[in-house]
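note to self: dont lose this again. the chain is below, predicted strucutre after it. 71 aa total, dont forget to put it in the shared folder this time
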Amino acid sequence: MLVVSYDDFSENMSKYLAQASSFGLKILPQKKEKRKETRTSKFLKTIQAATGILPLDLDIEKEKTEAILKI
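---
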């Protein structure tokens, strides 16, 4: 079974219609692609927001040890 996006199908319709009789064809709706893009963009925004929170010269193990000793 061929699985193609709606955009790809609309660009190469004759190609996929010729192959559909042999392999079968499933066309993904545009909504699913938009959801995937939205999730990806939200994830990238989250990563970008978290970048730079910790300084590059920070020794994490040293900070852990000091925090434990303070208790």
